[in-house]
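Lab notebook, bench 4. Continuing the backlog of folding jobs that were queued last week. Each job is logged with the same field layout so the records can be merged later without manual cleanup. Today's entry covers Multicopper oxidase CueO, a 505-residue chain. Filled in by technician R.K.

JOB TYPE: sequence-to-structure
TARGET: Multicopper oxidase CueO
LENGTH: 505
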Amino acid sequence: AVALGACGRDSTGQTAQLLPSRASLPKPYTVRLPIPPVKKPLRSDATTDYYEVVQKVADARILPGLRTPILGYDGIFPGPTLISRSGRRIVVRHRNELPVPTVVHLHGGHTPASSDGYPIDLLLPSAGWSPGASHASTGHGAAMMTGDVAKGQRDYTYPLDQRAATLWYHDHRMDFTAPQVYRGLAGFHLVHDDEEAALPLPKGERDIPLMICDRAFEHDGAFRYPSLDRELRSTPGVDADFMEGVLGDVILVNGAPWPELEVDAARYRFRILNASNARRYQFALRTGDSTSVPFVQVGGDGGLLERSVELQSIVAAPAERFDVVVDFSGYRPGTVVTMTNQLGSGPTARVMRFRVTRKVRDDSRVPDRLSTIERLDPAKAVHTREWRFARGVINEEHKGWTINGKPFDPRRMDARPRLGDIEIWRFTADLHHPVHIHLDPFQVLRRGNHSPSDSESGWKDTVDLRPTETVEVAVRFTDHRGAFMLHCHNLEHEDMAMMASFATV
Ligand code: C2O
Ligand code: CU
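JOB STATUS: finished
OUTPUT FIELD FOLLOWS
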């Protein structure tokens, strides 16, 4: 294992605990970057594409010579990439061949409540399941069985009536999201539209999704996670250490440790997703002689920005997406460009490497103007709501994380916004909390005393809320009535009850 000391603090500015690996790890940049396969529909009709995904246990090859058991969509990690066209409906039949219940959520999807993956709308294993001893001591597991329960398989319907954007799908099972995503239940879902297709941005093989997350490994190659198969809170001693979130010492990109990608001397579009449970990153690019290479950001969580933004580094909280163009065209074959994490140290300061292999013709470019974003006018807001994210008490036995002082209760609705209204939601935090809203994206109005940066000025669905900070966003829900979520996307916080529900009316 790479020596980082015992479970110490990582230099992320977070207090989350670092879990060191016990397996021997590969040298950085010796593994090729894998690209998740694109899923093909089983059939299509005039309005809809139909997919089938099987959730199963499988062995992944992540560390050399070792097998890592995963929970995988189609048995792979990351899961297969779905690619859709805006406005074209898709139905994804998920079959659960895992030993545990699951819930599928399309993060960033404008999805009806019945398919949004409410945390107690369980898809039970096809082979059967009964909540066993593992639930005996959970804080609020009693609510488990009161949702909309399906067994074996379930059809999730996505209208995808939304702009082109980089979405992702992942598990959302109440109290168990963190361990189930950690073990592999996450994949990309890209939505394209005509506006984006008409732009001269890099396309095809030069449009590459990068799912970045940290993991720790056991001697035998298994993922190392505190109390993997039990509930975190039910294990004495785990509370205190991992309440802040779990950090691993291995950085995976598309499931490979510190990989390398061979690139042409051309522009590339990378859709960066921070799929980590708790880790924040600050990504930067450098050549061998340590010249900094900029990212040109063209999009965020909710699709294209109005104008591109040149950034020397990108701070990414869990679940945030950054759609960037990197220009390798000026580099000679043989040049290496390394992507680092300025918030990490030692192994967690490295992410991946690009190696320029050949000169090519490239007529892609980044136009000045990318899109038009309708502004949600805060003066037209009909409601302002406060959401306070802080440590708190879940019940007599357990500390956890709360919103407005309350732990998550799936039967309690904490707000009833009216469809079509503009509202201002004001978030305050004790520590770092990446705040995510389901159903519709929002616009950041203020961060502390400042207006949002250009990078943060597009549509977002997750915002990096920093210690003691207040962030105000404008949001407007449309189309779908029902129960949706608002929560912290630090997945350990989420499982320790930092979620709230709202019902659109
Ligand atoms: Cu990415 Cu409610 O989740
Ligand atoms: Cu949090």
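OBSERVATION: Residues 27-193 form a domain with the Immunoglobulin-like fold (CATH 2.60.40.420).
SIGNED: R.K.
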